[in-house]
Structure formats: C-alpha cells, structure tokens
Amino acid sequence: MSQPDSTTPETPQKVSFYEKHKRIQAKSVRGLFDNWRIALVILTQAIFYGGLWLEWNDRQALLFHLVERKFYIFGLVFWPQDVIYLSALLIVSAYGLFLVTAIAGRLFCGYACPQTVYTQVFMWLENWVEGDRNARLKLDKAPMDARKFRLRATKYALWSIVGLWTGFTLVGYFTPVKELINNVLTNTLGPWETFWIFFYGGFTILMAGFMREQVCKHMCPYARFQSVMFDPDTLIITYDPERGETRGIRKKGVDPKAAGLGDCVDCGQCVAVCPTGIDIRNGLQYECIGCAACIDVCDQVMDKVGLPRGLIRYSTENAMAQHLTRKDILAHIVRPRILLYTFILAIIVGLSAWFLAHRIPLKVDIIRDRSVLAREADDGRIENVYMLQIMNTEEQAHRFKVAVDGLDGAEIEGETEVTVPAASLQSFNAIVRVPPEAGKSGSNRIHFEIVATDNADIKVREKAAFLLP
C-alpha cells in the first residue's frame, strides 16, 4: 500500500471553538414558586413605576434632582455632602446580598433581579402574542410571511412600549416627572434626557428581549463570584440522583423499583422550562439562577405518575449526602459564615440608622477671604472677612443666628442673623473683628456657631482661621 506524499499539502479545515448560540424558548409553567415569582414581579414594578408619582410636601416624593444637586426621599433631603449615606446604602446592599446568597444561593437572581424581572415581563408578552413554546418554535422555523411579520411586529412594538416607558420612568426620578411630561409634549426634551430615555429603554429591550439568559451566563459578574459565598449548607435547587436514577419512561402505576428504574421518567420538562436551558439533573451549575421553574414542573409530573413530590427541590449538598430533614436543614442555617455576615450587617444598619436619626439638618461651609490676609478697622481692631454658606436641609425655612468665639473680644460686625429658605443654600458674609492683643501673630483658631432661632437643637459649630499681623 503506497504511502501518501508528505509534500502534498493537506486540505485546511475550519475548526470553531465556540458553539453556535441556540435561542432558548422556555416553556411556561404554573406552580407555587411561579406564583412567588409573579408576586415579586408585580411588587418590584409597582415600586419602580408607581414610586415616580408619589407626592410629598407638594413635590415628587422620590426625586434625585441632579440640576439642583439634591436628593429628595420623602421627608429627607440629601446634599452632595451626604454621600456617606449613599456609601452606607451600597455597603448594606452588598452585605445583604452576601447574606442571602450564603443562606439560599441565587434567590435574588431567580425572583428580584431586574434582568430576571424584565425577562419575565417580555416573555409574558411574547407568549401572549406568539403562543406557547411549541408555537414559538414553529414560528422560529417558519419562513417570513405576512402572519410571521405581523406577530413579530406586534411583539417588538409591545417590547418597545415597555422599554421606552421604563427609560422614561428612570429619567423621571432625576428630572421632575411633571416637567419631563411637559418637555415630551412640547418636544423640548434636553439632550441628556433624550439620550437616557432611549439608551436605557433600548438596553432594556436588548437585554430582556433578545439576550436574556446570555446576560446571566456571560455578562453578570454575580454568576462568577457567587461560588465564594456558597458552602455545603447553602440552600440550592438540587436533583436527587439516589431517588431519580436510573431514568426511564414507564406507565402510570408501574412500580419503578420493580422495573429497575428511578422516579425520574426522563420527560425533559425540567430542561424545557429552564430559562437558561440547563439540565438540573447534571448537578449544580453556575448558569442556574434559582428560579425553581424546574421544581414546579417536576412536581406536576410526579403528581401525574403517582410518585411523591420533591425529586427536584430546594436542599443543600450536606442534606443530600446525609439525608437531612427539613428541620436539620434549618438548624444548619446558623453557622459561622452566616453569623459573621449578620453581625456585620446589623452593625452597619444600626450605625447608619442612628446617624440618620440624629442627622442635623444644617450644614455650613466657611471660606475666608484670601484676597486680604488681615486689615485694621477704624476702631483699631483687626478684622478678617469670611463667607459662610449655610445649607438648610429641612423642608421648612429657618432663621439662623451666627456667633463667633475663640479669641477674647471676638465679635461679628453688622448683621448676625440670616433667614434660609427650605431646602436651600444661603451665603452670609461675616466680618469678624478682634483686639490686636487677643492672639498671637499669624493664624489663630476661632469657631463659628450657627443656631436656628426656632430650634436650639439645630446648630453647627465650625472652626476657621483668624490671621493677626
């Protein structure tokens, strides 16, 4: 047999290292966990879309006014100087997510994550327009004709309405919604308002309508680092292989053990309803978002074939290995990791709540006039000029009295009181005079005390430097 000529070039072959994406058409399923998911979708969207229209003191109750640089949250008014409270909120949110993940895995992903929520909403619209899973699969394979064009156009139109309304709602939290509506009706939207309405609305359509599970599998960082918060006692969605294997189809009423089969009838319904397209029977996978759709459908299949529910269920690795009961699973919740997260979270929440409750609705910035270091007044005393920026963070006007101390004989020349309207900033020029012998040559520390005349508890004491020649 002749050997091939080594000099003959081989035909090049194209090798793909990536599997072609297959669109997942998840089957709808009703059940206990689906009802919880529906309830969370309604709750979160009622808060998001409805919170925009709440009124408080004749203004929008929730408004993060970027132009005025004020954040209104019901009766609270936050200024840029209050960024510490935003930091506390982010830390509390992070530790809260860590705690929930350590206890119950990706529970947030399955029920309250915006990506999951909007994907669910868009899938409901798709199911309403194009039909159930089988109808959608047939439509995907069908050539483009008048019916397919009509259905797709209707679906995309509904998606666009939801997406643009979502973008409008988001911008309405940063620009007063009544002003925003007027700008839309009069076609006077600003460039940034227009950009964010279409940008956020477009990405809502893209990520919830088209990308869906790809966001959870390939873009979400939480899917990647969640494993560091998991341990064998973390509650996850699990398939019971001891009970389910060996899989196989059987007639109703047939004893699976007598037929050498497990309880799993290998119907594939758990895969059909999975929004990320995984087979939970292959074990824990990072693509699983914990939505429990496979539990709902598997329980229904078990009911039909006359077998106990729970072949797929919420459980833990230790519970599966050691055959723990529900009571034992609950007992394992209290463990060092959970105690640590809870302790840190409680400390941060407690401190944040205390500081917020004792927050003084008054802020003062003091700027000394640097154009003149010090000057001698007509009466022989030395004077420095200061500008006080007094911020009243309450939604009622206050009149403040300004006093100074720190050097013997220090006093403010002229007016010592200023009225600051509600939730506003007022500048106050203060000329401070002291006797020449009141301090040392150079910089001396003085203090301004600003007190509300109608409430002595609203006061701030700020230091400043007084220069003597």
CATH superfamily of the domain at 362-468: Immunoglobulins
Radius of gyration: 33 Å
Low-confidence stretches: none
**Would you tell me the overall average pLDDT?**
89
Number of strands: 16
CATH class of the domain at 362-468: Mainly Beta
Q: Distance between termini?
A: 110 Å
Assigned CATH architecture of the domain at 362-468: Sandwich
Report the portion of residues in β strands.
15-25%
- Overall shape: elongated
Question: How do the strands and helices of this protein lay out in sequence?
Answer:
Elements: H1 32-50, E1 55-56, E2 59-60, E3 62-65, E4 70-73, E5 76-78, H2 83-104, H3 107-111, H4 114-130, H5 133-141, H6 146-172, H7 177-185, H8 191-211, H9 213-219, H10 222-225, E6 236-239, H11 241-244, H12 269-272, H13 293-305, E7 312-315, H14 317-322, H15 326-331, H16 336-357, E8 362-368, E9 375-376, E10 382-392, E11 398-405, E12 411-413, E13 417-420, E14 424-434, E15 442-452, E16 455-468
Antiparallel strand pairs: 1-2, 3-4, 4-5, 6-7, 8-10, 9-10, 10-14, 11-13, 11-15, 12-14, 15-16
Keywords:
four-stranded antiparallel β-sheet, 16 strands, 469 residues, alpha+beta, five-stranded antiparallel β-sheet
Description:
The chain is α+β, with helices and mostly antiparallel strands. Helix content is 42%, strand content 20%. Among the domains are: 231-324, no CATH class; 362-468, Immunoglobulins (Immunoglobulin-like). Strands 8, 9, 10, 12 and 14 form a 5-stranded antiparallel sheet that branches. β15 and β16 (455-468) form a beta hairpin. α2 runs antiparallel to α16 (336-357), α4 crosses α8 and α6 (146-172) packs across α8. The longest helix is centred in the middle third of the chain and has 27 residues, at 146-172.
